[in-house]
Amino acid sequence: xxxxxxxxxxxxxxxxxxxxxxxxxxxxxxxxxxxxxxxxxxxxxxxxxxxxxxxxxxxxxxxxxxxxxxxxxxxxxxxxxxxxxxxxxxxxxxxxxxxxxxxxxxxxxxxxxxxxxxxxxxxxxxxxxxxxxxxxxxxxxxxxxxxxxxxxxxxxxxxxxxxxxxxxxxxxxxxxxxxxxxxxxxxxxxxxxxxxxxxxxxxxxxxxx
Length: 209
Description:
Layout (H helix, E strand, L loop, with lengths): L7 E4 L2 H4 L4 H10 L4 E4 L6 H15 L6 E4 L2 H7 L3 E4 L6 H8 L4 E6 L2 H7 L6 E4 L16 H11 L4 E4 L7 H5 L5 E4 L1 H4 L4 H12 L3
Parallel strand pairs: 1-2, 1-8, 2-3, 3-4, 4-5, 5-6, 6-7, 7-8
């Protein structure tokens, strides 16, 4: 995959969307410059998940924005999404690759420097260092890497690195200075009054890296 697609990576969260439609928020954010989207749905039944993923994929394709599905390889296959993002306790990456084939994107969350090292031998496209900073969005994560830890992960990884956890206008530039390929944003866009404006402001912060 193109490294630039990781630059401003939106991860959805239905709870943060409130009474707004997730698809509408995503498409507004794309207008502001989001370069990749991960659809994360922990509470939808499979049929509803497929319906939402299929709609979103059809809307994103004309914009050249890849859609990856969190965890659910079956949903990615059913909707011909660009790929899948998995965590340390999800389906092993070797199995995901076997099911998806060579042309699809696979991302992996890493929660320690040991995870970073082990990921170097995997046939994946990027790693997401999680969390860089403490965040209220996910409370079941390991200790934050911090900027120094992220910088070490970037130097240690053979794959492009995305920072997630506490990504916003204030932290974006510092994260990119570590050599990361991009930032993965959740609440700063999903909860924003104007997702397009929030994305645009963050993209501006990333402009010099």
